[in-house]
Design a protein that fits this description.
Blueprint lengths: L1 H19 L4 E2 L7 E3 L7 E6 L1 H4 L5 E3 L6 E3 L3 H5 L10 E2 L9 E10 L6 E6 L4 E6 L3 E3 L8 H11 L19 H18 L4 H16 L14 H6 L1
Antiparallel strand pairs: 1-2, 2-3, 3-7, 4-10, 5-6, 5-9, 7-8, 8-9
Length: 235
């Protein structure tokens, strides 16, 4: 399953890269949304602020080479609304494994299927880049206190009704009550474990779990596509 996800991510990244090469960006400074110029053959590139992720601040690590992270504070202003811009220096994820990033923007193509990409920047804006969610994770995802939460979420993620009886809609929404009950049980365990966490980690995890339920993730098998940093980190 993990190998399939990796291949899917790389394919999505390659597809986005191809599309980016074909569509110039026009930025409107007075708006939080940037789009491409309209052409018959080019999809519309949409860049938006993403407050529900940005509010958590610098809590993300980059863990993938899917898209490059560029070095240089001057790159920030050039890249934040322009995914076409390429810096002169890149850095290996291994060298910045302990650097924390903030998610500031999301980019997707109107009318085109595929994974969105996110603009991330370090606190001093030294490192910047656009990357799919599969290349990002919560910085403390491997901490011991968090493992009981992660264990329950992995059970939800790995529970697909396709394998048993196919009781789900074309959009991936679960209709089987027994499967939903299992998801709700594991979700309750995750919340219980999260309440034992401390400080900012407790606030972040409980907030992410609340958002998870509001987004209907318990009823949808495509949880990895939700804008939820904690869920990205579980995959």
């Amino acid at each position: 399953m993990k190998s399939r996800k990796i291949l899917t991510t790389l394919f999505a990244a390659a597809s986005v890269a191809t599309l980016l090469g074909a569509a110039p960006v026009t930025v409107n400074a007075a708006s939080s949304v940037s789009t491409t110029t309209s052409t018959k053959n080019s999809p519309k590139l949409i860049i938006q602020n993403i407050p529900k992720l940005s509010k958590w601040g610098y809590i993300v690590n980059v863990n993938s080479r899917a898209q490059p992270i560029y070095v240089g504070q001057s790159n920030y202003a050039k890249m934040v609304n322009n995914p076409h811009f390429k810096g002169t220096r890149t850095v290996s994820p291994k060298k910045i494994k302990n650097v924390r990033f903030k998610v500031e923007k999301v980019m997707h193509f109107k009318g085109v299927s595929g994974s969105p990409e996110y603009f991330v920047t370090s606190k001093d804006h030294k490192y910047n880049g656009w990357t799919p969610s599969a290349g990002l994770q919560y910085y403390a995802i491997n901490s011991k206190p968090l493992q009981k939460v992660i264990k329950s979420l992995k059970k939800i993620e790995g529970r697909s009704p396709i394998k048993q009886n196919g009781k789900f809609t074309s959009k991936g929404t679960i209709t089987d009550r027994k499967w939903l009950a299992k998801n709700e049980h594991d979700y309750a365990l995750a919340v219980k474990a999260a309440k034992k966490l401390k400080g900012n980690q407790r606030k972040f995890v409980l907030g992410s779990l609340k958002q998870m339920k509001q987004d209907g993730v318990l009823r949808n098998v495509m949880m990895e596509k939700k804008d939820n940093i904690l869920l990205w980190s579980v995959n």
